[in-house]
From TrEMBL:
GO terms for molecular function: heme binding; indoleamine 2,3-dioxygenase activity; metal ion binding. The keyword Metal-binding applies. PANTHER family: INDOLEAMINE 2,3-DIOXYGENASE (PTHR28657). InterPro entries: Indolamine_dOase, Trp/Indoleamine_2_3_dOase-like. Heme b binds at residue 431. This is Indoleamine 2,3-dioxygenase. GO terms for cellular component: cytoplasm. Keywords: Heme, Iron, Metal-binding. The keyword Iron applies. Pfam families: IDO.
Length: 492
């Protein structure tokens, strides 16, 4: 066989899932040119190669104005301690305007993936502003008005995303250049990849540097992860060849991959330089919580479903989470660690109440189904669909790395592989430290300050994705550590 030809079932030769499976019934597959590459760029990885669209055209200006107004008014959390009457009135005035807005058609947005992404960003952020600016209420339901829900559900169906703020909305498609690079309008050469220190955010709930740094830390990690994707690609090529020289090169690539993962862990810790833990916990984090992130478990009701039979009541309403980043999932799949880190026993104890009265009878079945799916696997539903397809392709590799390492009886290769897995375990150690600093510590301070033994304070801490946070992260970390291979049992 010619070594320069890929075998028919190599993951790079498989048909795209969009072609194989197609979009849902009645949904147009609005792909970008990069869809053939799973929307993974060689310069920016899972980040888009060009800055995201910053505004929709005039037909949807009402949406843009609503989001602008929420930020200009500096809407406050409805449960903010000490909120003033003027702040409450500002929020209610803004929400009243949202309720009075027309329901704007979305069909013309289907012509452009970039416009759909911007529309999802604008409407989902607006919805979170609406929900989390509401004052405390004894009601068990939150009614979200149709001018938001109808177009958001239509756009979400096109993008195959849940109708909430996702990681792609606050990180992947929420950036621009601080200082735009000089370019010639007549030059078709792509813009350079953004430097890690030349990024700013497009949308913020609080307008604070703390919030911006929280999102940009993840964006910088995505860009640093491009080298990891390059190393994986080179390793896949050598796995196909599979001779002694190829194994030697794979050993070098795995050592390099471990160093990149260590760099990602170091970048994660830099969030401490610009984002204060107490500010994050009290002022920022509540804005992007999903329906399953609060101990209150108030049900989100999407108005307009009864008048639009083509729309489906959403069942996935978790908030944005680092677990929605494709980069770490790719590392898990490539290293063969997903069998451990994505174990179906790691569900995060997820629970969702129905988002519409019509879904009540199916609640028990939905909860039962979700309880059987690992949290990390479920979070793939929140990724851009082309990135999900990339993960699916990677998992079908004809020569899995872990299997090759196990079968090779090559001690140096095994050590390099274990070093990479150990780096991933250290990365997860770092994530646990950040959670302890930004969520566990501030939550204990809040409990001490209130000195109240309430049910809310006694409940397990939940992540914005709805997990019982600390236990889940430690379980994933420990499962990752368990993926290190024993040379005595597997390589001798």
């Amino acid at each position: 066989m010619d070594h320069f030809e890929l075998i028919s079932n190599h993951f790079l030769n498989l048909p795209r899932p969009d072609v194989e499976l197609g979009p849902p019934a009645g949904v147009v597959d609005t792909t970008t040119l990069a869809a053939h590459d799973f929307d993974v760029d060689t310069r920016t990885g899972f980040m888009p190669p060009q800055p995201p669209l910053i505004r929709l055209s005039d037909q949807w200006e009402a949406w843009e104005q609503a989001l602008d107004d929420a930020q200009v008014r500096r809407l406050q959390l409805g449960r903010k301690p000490g909120i003033t009457e003027d702040e409450r009135n500002q929020s209610e005035s803004w929400r009243a305007h949202i309720r009075e807005m027309p329901i704007i058609p979305t069909s013309k947005l289907n012509q452009s993936e970039l416009m759909l992404r911007r529309a999802h960003h604008v409407l989902s952020w607006t919805m979170h502003f609406y929900i989390h600016s509401l004052p405390p209420s004894p009601s068990s339901e939150i009614i979200i008005p149709a001018p938001i829900t109808v177009p958001l559900l239509q756009i979400s169906a096109q993008l195959q995303l849940p109708p909430v703020v996702t990681y792609s909305d606050d990180v992947l498609y929420n950036w621009a250049f601080k200082s735009p690079p000089l370019s010639d309008p007549t030059d078709s050469t792509p813009l350079p990849a953004p430097a890690l220190d030349n990024l700013r955010c497009l949308t913020l709930f609080t307008g604070t540097r703390d919030e911006e740094e929280f999102y940009l830390t993840s964006a910088r990690m995505e860009l640093r992860g491009v080298e990891a994707l390059d190393l994986m690609r080179a390793t896949m090529d050598e796995l196909f060849v599979g001779d002694t020289i190829a194994l030697r090169r794979i050993t070098q690539y795995l050592h390099a991959l471990g160093r990149v993962i260590d760099d990602l862990a170091a970048l994660l810790m830099t969030v401490r330089d610009g984002c204060r833990p107490d500010v994050f916990y009290s002022d920022i984090r509540p804005w992007f919580c999903g329906a399953d992130s609060s101990s209150e478990q108030r049900r989100w009701i999407f108005e307009g479903l009864e008048d639009n039979p083509d729309l489906v009541a959403p069942t996935e309403l978790s908030g944005p989470s680092a677990a929605q980043s494709s980069l770490v999932h790719v590392l898990d799949v490539f290293l063969g660690v997903d069998e451990y880190s994505h174990s179906n026993s790691l569900t995060g104890h997820h629970f969702v109440k129905p988002s519409s009265s019509s879904s009540t009878t199916a609640t028990s079945s939905l909860e039962s189904d979700k309880s059987k799916i690992s949290f990390l696997t479920r979070m793939q539903t929140y990724m851009p669909r082309h990135h999900r397809n990339f993960l699916r392709h990677l998992s079908t590799a004809a020569r899995p790395l872990r299997e090759t390492v196990s079968d090779s009886h090559d001690t140096e290769l095994l050590e390099a592989y274990n070093d990479a897995v150990s780096s991933l375990k250290r990365f997860r150690d770092g994530h646990i430290r950040i959670v302890a600093m930004y969520i566990v510590g501030p939550s204990r301070k809040a409990a001490d300050a209130e000195r109240v033994e309430s049910e809310e304070l006694q409940a397990p801490l939940k992540g914005t994705g709805g997990t019982d946070l600390v236990k889940f992260l430690k379980d994933v970390r420990d499962r990752t550590a368990a993926a290190v291979m024993n040379p005595k049992s597997e390589c001798l």
